[in-house]
Specification:
- By secondary structure, the chain is of the alpha+beta class.
- The chain contains seven helices and six strands.
- It has one domain (6-150): Enolase-like, domain 1.
- The protein has helices at residues 6-15, 46-51, 67-72, 99-111, 116-120, 131-143, 147-161, and strands at residues 20-24, 27-30, 39-43, 57-62, 78-83, 89-95.
- The radius of gyration is 20 Å and the shape is globular.
- The termini are far apart.
Length: 176
Amino acid sequence: MKDMDAARLDEIIRRFPECRVAVLGDFFLDKYLDTDPELARVGLSETEAKQKGVAHRVYTFPFADNDRARAEGETEGLAKIVTDPRGRLLGAAIVGLHAGELIAEYALALTRGMKAADISGTIHTYPTLAQINRRVADQRLKEGLTPSSKAWISSFRWTFTSPAVPRVPKPSSKGC
């Protein structure tokens, strides 16, 4: 199967505009579509944000990079979130395995005015498809990292993975 990209997700969403079934405040909750792959969407799409002139950012994460999707052999799919420039969620769309169940977290986040950082800061068990929600939200956080914070984080990665780092001897049980 071919991995899904953002353009294909937009194409699928445009083909099913009649799926709106409920209103959540200012947001439409789109109906889950039992297609192959599954499609679920809530809030503003990227296209709607552009049409309304809403300042936004878009982040995606492919199912192919999720360990559970790989284990299930269902790597076709994509999670996509739309946020305002400060990270507040405006919408989400998921195409892939169990999209109908995965979208519920974003429906809750939208009704509560949450940010991508709130999703990213929530524990998502491993290995599950639910990690896709966290990983797409992590993309927003990564964008906000400064070069110095990236260097600092990289130094920790080197520290914990480098064989050149000397081991600290354990304290003697004999005392001083």
